Amino acid sequence: MGTFAIGTDAFVVSGILPAIAADLRVGLDAAGQVATAYALTYALGAPLLAALTVKLPREQTVTAALGLFALSNALCALAPLYVFLIAARVLAGTLLLTALAAFGASMRQSPSEAAAS
CB–CB of 75/91 below 8 Å? Predict the structure, then answer.
């Protein structure tokens, strides 16, 4: 499920880049940075957020991060300016990464470690 969310969210904007460029009055190359901002955030943040979320309660972290991920995507849809859209995409990448890091860490825990957290 996580791979599906990453792939879908990273590449769904490809088909609407001309509309994004026209709506925000930027060039097509600048509109393409919307996908880059998300993917780069995810790629660079993975090791850091995996380490930072290791002590957090898994279920609550995943639930909160996915809820905020949905909200950040709503912000993307409503972004009035290019800079806000890029910021919302970075936020979306960070939140999805947080949820997946927490979920992945919970999958690696032994049953006794899971019961303790």
Answer: yes
